Amino acid sequence: MNSPGDSTMHARIPHHAAPLMAVCLACAALLAAPASAVPIAVQDPDGKPVPTVMVSRQPVNMAAVDTSDNGYPASGQQQQAYVELARFTDARGQVDIPPAEFPWKIRLRKPGYKDRTLLAKELGSTAVVMAPEHDPAALAEQQPANAWSSTIDFANATLKKEFMLQCNFCHQQGGPQLRRERSADEWRAAIQRMMRYGSRLSSQEQKEIPALLEAHWKKIHANPSLVPAGTPWGASLAKATIRELPIGDSMSQMHDLLLHSNGMVYVGDNLQDRVYEVDPATGRYTVYKIPPRPGDKLGGLLAGRLRDFPKHETYQGIHSLAESPKDGHIFITPSYQRRLIEFDPKTKAFIYHDMDGGFYPHTVRFDAKNRVWFTLALSNQVGMYDRAADKFTFYDLPFRSLMERITVKLTPFIFKLLGWGIPIANYVNVDHVSTGVPLPYGIDITPDGKAWIARLHTDEIASVDPDTGKVTMVKTPFSAPRRLRSDREGNLWITAFNESQIVRYTPSTGAFMRLDLPVVPKGSDTPYALNVDRVRNQVWVNGTNSDSVYRYDIATQTWSMFPMQRHVTFTRDVEISPAGKVYVTSASFPSWQIEDGQPTLIEITPQ
């Protein structure tokens, strides 16, 4: 992802070579520090230095890439995008920005000050002056979505939590598109569309919330000073570098990603059935379009879900990706089909593995025996594909009631009705605990070989013992466990989505340890996923509603926060390189909600 003039961006390397190569790459990074970096100093009108200013190097014009395939690059044809870069001023208000070999500009941004943009040729030896912002409406506009959504008060904390759980998993709540004034009827229509996309907002809330939202946003827009400030930007950001590579467009959804041992980052476009193969060392990328199989319908088995979406080419619904420890093949869960898709990064061939059970393959992981584990979100199951035996095994999770069992078994028929345009959601009562959709969600494999699952709507985690087939359910003392990962000790780290927390679970003792995210206002974020850097013993968390990514250091029990360059940067997956670089994608659905409508692959270098 570095363009000419950038310092080296380390790619992932094979695990057996990681220790030696990490040292070599660290030395190379020091040697490669650009001698021609452009020094920038930032001051306020009184001549005082302004620290923690985000200084973004951006292209004057986007790179010209192929759009011959319905607006996207032709499959298999390499592209070159311009890489954006951001650094933060230090206590002296100073920062060095590597130049680029394409026409570039800088944008300066810091909450409480007016944005400034200058062309590279306008930079000189004098300091750049940033003027404080005093207008209450403009100050509110600078704040991330969590600051806006923190003002929502339904006079019922439980109601607010359900709203955030069911209305915040596709896009932010409090972002510009979701905080504008609408009538109750407009909110009601939006909620009905959201229900078709997969929300399980209770029938009671569907009736009550439209009028509450209409009144609330009228109040806030009449008095924008009610919007509080977001999380302060810390001084340690002066050590960080953030790079972004634009991929896809406003009709894309860059859902999950995989950092492969070959050094490439693979990103799945959930709405356009395309896999992006990105070289993070150069910024070059190639798109591979997954071909539909004969008989596949647009929208797959959920054909009615996106019937009013302006443009999509999803037959598969790319969701999650995982790498085989044996041959490096990538397995992809296509949520709109009953299959797994295998991708060979060397030959670029796609292989389909059909299964006769399950519905909505979701998150996927490999175990040490080269078996593929995945959740089946809408059939309340965990699947396992044994590659050596070419065999699927399904593990049923327990139902909460007879009615839930019946509803889950009828799921394929229900989606057929939706595909035919029958508004069945209008006639089904949805309760506050989402009976009928327990939703097994995230999955990971602990060092002892067990598969652990987070079940979002039942406030439970579960384990599957592959040797015995035994399923064990564990009730969580928090709501909405979404995704989870294992650390090197076999502990599980779990996101508590509508609790604004992450949680450590120790299987050997059954103990839970809850940690509040360091977000301001407190409790206002919705962490979608996390990953564990087992080398550095750190947990990286998606700040999905706050345009940020968090890092928790397990040994020192300290937090760091890294703000993103674009407002409405909704991220839902994290990958970590052996060198300590972190990758996320801006994955809002729809992507046109992002500040400039452009989804990106984002690389964070903390030091």
Automatic annotation (TrEMBL):
Signal peptide: 1-37
PANTHER family linked to this entry: VIRGINIAMYCIN B LYASE (PTHR40274)
Signal among keywords: yes
Protein name: Lyase
Lineage: superkingdom: Bacteria
The entry's keywords: Signal
Gene Ontology molecular function terms on file: electron transfer activity; heme binding
